[in-house]
Amino acid sequence: MVLNVLSYNIHGLPNILTPYTNSNRITDIIDEVGSYDLVFLQENWVYQDLIKNNFSNDKFIIGGKNKFTIKDKPRRSSGLNIITSDKISIYDYNEYQFKNCNGWLANANDCFASKGFIYSRLLLDKDTLNVYVTHLDAGNSDKDLSVRETQMNQLIQSIEKISNSGPLIVCGDFNIDYYSNQNIIDTFVNKFSLIDLDWNLNISDEFKIDYVFYRSGINTKITVYDVGINSDFINHSDHYPIEFKMLLEEVE
Known about the structure:
Layout: E1 2-12, H1 25-33, E2 38-44, H2 48-54, E3 60-62, E4 81-84, E5 89-97, E6 116-123, E7 128-135, H3 142-160, E8 168-173, H4 182-191, E9 195-196, E10 210-215, E11 220-229, E12 242-250
Parallel strand pairs: 1-2, 7-8
Antiparallel strand pairs: 1-12, 2-4, 3-4, 5-6, 6-7, 8-10, 9-10, 11-12
C-alpha cells in the first residue's frame, strides 16, 4: 500500500491577524488536502467547518477539547486535525491536552490555545498504523524551555504505552529548532528507534521546528520516498507543507 502524506502547520488564524492578503489561502489548502491519503494539520483554530464540509465524518479527527470554562470555542482548542482517504480507516483516537503552558499576553500567547496531541490507531489491511500529531509551545525563554520539556515528556509517556507492534508516525510543530537543540531531537529519535524525515534538504533555511518521525512495525515495513514540500503553498503559511509518499509492505 502506498500513502500520499502531508503534515502542515497552516497558520489557521483569521487573515486579519496574519500578514497574508490571499483570502482564499486556507480554502485552497483544504481543497488540495483531498489529494492526500493521510493529512496532519496544525493550527487549524478557525477553519474546522471546512474539514467538516469537505470530508465524511468517519474520515477526519478534529481536536475539540479545551481547558476553558466555555467549552464550545474551537479557537481555543489544540488546532490539530487528522484526515484520511478511503485507503485507511480510523479505528479509534484519544486527544490529550498538555498539562501546562507559557504565555498569555507574551511569549506567543500559547496559553490561549489548548495545545496537546492526538493519538490515533488507523487500520491497514493486516496491521495497525499508530499516528501522532502534536503542537508544542513556542518561545525561547527559560519558562518556555521548561514547559516544552514537560510537554515533550508527556508525549513520550504516551508513546511508551503503545501496546501493539504496528508502525508509527509522529509529526507536527515541535517548536524545537534542530540546529540549536539537536540533542533533544536526537534523544527522542534514539529512544523510540525513529527516523527523522529529511524534508528540508533542498531548503536554505537554517531553522527546523516541524518534524515527521517514523519507524516500521514488526509486521509492516515503511519505506518513504518523494520527500519534499508542496511548493504551491509555500506562501500560504509561515510553515512549510511537508509531503512524502509512504510504502507500507507486509514483512514476510
